[in-house]
Specification:
Elements lengths: L3 H10 L2 H6 L5 E3 L2 E4 L11 E4 L4 E4 L5 E2 L1 H9 L3 H11 L22 H18 L1 H9 L4 H6 L3 E3 L16 H5 L3 E3 L5 E3 L4 E7 L5 E8 L8 E3 L12 E2 L1 H11 L2 E4 L2 H9 L5 E4 L6 H8 L4 E6 L3 H14 L8 E6 L6 H18 L2 E2 H10 L7 H17 L3 H14 L4 H7 L22 H12 L8 H4 L5 H15 L5 H9 L4 H12 L7 H29 L8 H15 L1
Parallel strand pairs: 13-14, 13-15, 15-16
Antiparallel strand pairs: 1-2, 2-3, 3-4, 4-5, 6-9, 7-8, 9-10, 10-11, 12-14, 16-17
Helix pairs in contact: 3-4, 10-13, 15-16, 18-20, 18-23, 23-24
Length: 578
C-alpha cells in the first residue's frame, strides 16, 4: 500500500493549477483561476481552481476535489494510477508499505516539510542572538520588519548546531531535506554554517528549502542552496513568489532578479513584486508560473559579462512559454551596480523609471544577434539567418513569431516568403489542436471506480459505506445498489454481482460498467484503489453537505438563528475562508 505520509508529501509538492491547466486551460481570475467546466457542457466559466487551497470546484455541476480527484474524474484513473501520475510530474518515487509482517518493510522518509519548518524557526531565532549577523543586515539597509516578513535567519558557525533542534540527528529526513550532510567516513554535519538564511516557500507558503548567503566576503560559495529534494526542484521554484503575488497583481508586472538579497532589498524600498531564480537559469516553468500572476515580466540583470550571459539564457529558455499576450523585457543596470546597490543609491522612483525603459524581447534578440555582426556581406547575412533560425523555431505564439520573422527578413534583406522558403520554420497558420470534447455526464468516473472495485472484490465492502452516501442521482443509486448487493454476496464472482445489479440499475449504466470491467488493469491493487476512491468520495459528500448547510443557514436573518445554527455558520464559514 502507498503510505499516507507519502500522499501528503506529494500533495504538498504538487501544484493543482499545473495539473489541471494541462487538460483544461485556466485563466487568472483574481486570486483564483477559472475555466469552462471539463465535466459538463457550459458556455460561461463556473469552474474555479484555488492555488492556496489546492482545490477545484464547479458551481455548475458541483464537481470538486484535489489534484488526485481531478485525475481520477477527468482521465478515469484509479486512485493508485493518479498517485503515480502526480509523482512522475514532480520527480518523486512512490514507495510501498509491506503488508506481510514477515517481509521487510520499504523505508519511507517522513516529515520532510516539518523538518524544514523547524529548521526555519531555529535559524530565525538564532539571528536574534547574533549581533554580527544583525549588523551585516543593517549594513545592507535591511529593517527588522522586512527581515521578519521574509523570515530571514542565521545558521551559526559550528558543525552540528541542528542537533539541539533534532535530538535524533541521524534521522534520514534531515539528509533528504538537505539540512544535514554525511561525508565519506559517515560523519554527519550541518549543511549551512555561518550564513544568512533565506527560506524558500512553495505556493502555499510552506518552507521547502533554503538559500544561504555568506557574511564573510572571503568565504565561498557566495550563495549556497538546498539540494533538490522531493519537495524542492530549483527549475520549478522562484524565491519570493509566495510573498510577491499580491504586489505583482497590483503592479501589473513581475521583476525577475538574480539574488535573494536583491529581492529583499527591493522590498525594503517598496518594490515588492520582485522574485529570483534559485541558482539556475530562468526556465519555461518559471515563466509559466509568472504568467499566471501577470502579463508582463521584466528581467533585471547586472551589466557585467555574467549578467549578460544570464540574460541571454533566460531569453532562450522563455521562448517555448511565450504567448502573444505576454510582454517580456530586459533591463541591464550599469556594470557597477546590481538591483540591491542601485535602489539603495538612487531610490525607488529612479529604479522604476529604468524598468519602464526595459528592452522588449524581440528587440533584445535582434540586438544580440547583430551585436558582433555588421550584416554587410552575404556571409554576414547567412550567419545571421543561421543563428536566428533555431530561435524562431521555438516561438509558438503566432503574432510574436510573425513580427520577429519580418524583422529578421528585413535585416537579412530578404522578403518574408524568400526567408520562409530557405528556413525550416513552423507553420503559423495551422489549425489549433482540437480540444478534448466536454464530458456529457457529471463527475461519474470516481463513482464508477468505487463500484468496479466493489464488484471485483465484494468482500472489501463495508456496511458503513451506506451511511455517508447522499443524493438520488444515477451515480448515488448505483453506489447504494452495488454496496447492498456486495454485502449480500460477499464471496461471489463479478459476473454474479453484475447479474444481480442488472435488475436494479439502468441498463445503460450496466453497459458502461461492463465495458470498464473488460479493460480494468488486472494488476490493480483493489484494496488500495477502493480505499482511495472511498476517501475521495467521502470528502466530496462531506463538502457538498457542508456547502448546502451553509447556504441554508445563511439565508436566514441573523436574528432568527438558533444558537446551534450560529455555531454551525461560524464553523462552516471558517472552513470556507481557509
Amino acid at each position: 500500500m502507498i503510505p499516507e505520509s507519502f500522499i501528503q508529501e506529494l500533495l504538498n509538492r504538487v501544484d493543482i493549477v499545473d495539473v489541471i491547466d494541462k487538460s483544461t486551460p485556466l485563466k487568472k481570475a483574481g486570486a483564483n483561476y477559472s475555466a469552462c467546466c471539463p465535466f459538463h457542457n457550459e458556455k460561461s466559466p463556473s469552474f474555479t481552481v484555488s492555488p492556496t487551497k489546492q482545490f477545484y470546484h464547479c458551481f455548475g455541476c458541483g464537481a470538486h476535489g484535489t489534484a488526485v480527484g481531478f485525475l481520477m474524474e477527468y482521465q478515469g484513473l484509479s486512485f493508485v494510477e493518479a498517485i503515480n501520475d502526480l509523482a512522475r510530474m514532480v520527480g518523486m518515487i512512490v514507495p510501498q508499505e509491506a503488508r506481510d509482517a514477515n517481509k521487510p518493510e520499504h523505508k519511507v522518509v517522513l516529515g520532510l516539510q516539518e523538518s524544514l519548518q523547524q529548521a526555519a524557526q531555529y535559524y530565525k531565532a538564532e539571528l536574534k542572538k547574533s549581533p554580527r549577523a544583525i549588523e551585516y543586515l543593517k549594513a545592507r539597509g535591511l529593517s527588522g520588519q522586512v527581515a521578519a516578513k521574509f523570515q530571514v535567519g542565521y545558521a551559526p558557525a559550528g558543525w552540528q548546531n541542528l542537533q539541539s533542534v533534532f535530538p535524533n540527528y541521524d534521522n534520514e529526513a534531515l539528509s533528504v531535506a538537505g539540512l544535514v550532510v554525511e561525508n565519506d567516513q559517515g560523519r554527519r554535519y550541518d549543511r549551512f554554517r555561518d550564513r544568512i538564511m533565506f527560506p524558500i516557500h512553495d505556493q502555499k507558503g510552506q518552507v521547502i528549502g533554503f538559500g544561504g548567503r555568506v557574511i564573510n566576503p572571503e568565504d565561498t560559495p557566495k550563495y549556497y542552496n538546498s539540494p533538490e529534494t522531493p519537495l524542492f526542484q530549483k527549475g520549478h521554484e522562484l524565491y519570493g513568489l509566495f510573498l510577491a503575488r499580491r504586489a505583482i497583481r497590483d503592479a501589473g508586472r513581475a521583476l525577475v532578479v538574480e539574488g535573494y538579497m536583491d529581492v529583499v532589498a527591493l522590498a525594503q524600498y517598496g518594490i515588492e513584486y520582485a522574485v529570483a531564480a534559485l541558482g539556475t537559469a530562468t526556465t519555461p516553468f518559471h515563466i509559466t508560473k509568472l504568467m499566471r500572476q501577470t502579463d508582463e515580466v521584466v528581467f533585471c540583470f547586472d551589466g557585467d559579462n555574467a549578467g549578460l550571459t544570464a540574460a541571454w539564457r533566460a531569453a532562450m529558455n522563455a521562448l517555448p512559454a511565450l504567448t502573444d499576450g505576454l510582454k517580456l523585457s530586459f533591463l541591464f543596470l550599469p556594470k557597477a551596480h546590481d538591483p540591491d546597490s542601485y535602489v539603495r543609491e538612487f531610490g525607488k522612483e529612479q529604479f522604476e523609471a529604468e524598468i519602464k525603459t526595459a528592452m522588449p524581447l524581440s528587440q533584445y534578440i535582434l540586438k544580440h544577434l547583430s551585436e558582433d555582426n555588421p550584416l554587410q556581406s552575404q556571409e554576414d547575412k547567412v550567419r545571421f539567418l543561421n543563428e536566428a533560425e533555431p530561435i524562431m523555431q521555438q516561438i509558438n505564439a503566432p503574432r510574436s513569431a510573425m513580427y520577429l520573422r519580418k524583422k529578421v527578413a528585413e535585416l537579412a534583406q530578404l522578403s518574408i516568403d524568400e526567408m520562409q522558403s530557405l528556413l525550416k520554420l513552423p507553420n503559423l497558420n495551422k489549425a489549433p489542436a482540437q480540444a478534448r470534447p466536454k464530458l456529457t455526464r457529471t463527475t461519474n468516473s470516481l463513482h464508477h471506480h468505487f463500484c468496479l472495485t466493489m464488484i471485483m472484490q465484494p468482500a472489501l465492502v463495508d456496511k458503513d459505506d451506506l451511511l455517508w452516501i447522499a443524493g438520488s442521482s444515477d451515480d448515488e443509486l448505483l453506489l447504494r445498489q452495488t454496496i447492498e448487493t456486495c454485502l449480500m454476496h460477499p464471496h461471489s464472482k463479478p459476473v454474479v454481482i453484475m447479474r444481480e445489479l442488472e435488475s436494479k440499475v439502468d441498463a445503460n449504466i450496466i453497459t458502461e460498467l461492463k465495458k470498464e470491467l473488460n479493460v480494468l488493469d488486472e494488476t490493480l491493487d483493489l484494496a488500495q484503489a477502493m480505499s482511495g476512491a472511498r476517501q475521495q468520495l467521502k470528502q466530496l459528500y462531506l463538502q457538498k453537505n457542508e456547502t448546502a448547510l451553509l447556504a441554508q443557514v445563511s439565508e436566514k436573518p441573523l436574528s432568527a438563528l438558533t444558537d446551534d445554527e450560529r455555531n454551525l455558520l461560524k464553523s462552516l464559514g471558517s472552513k470556507v475562508k481557509k
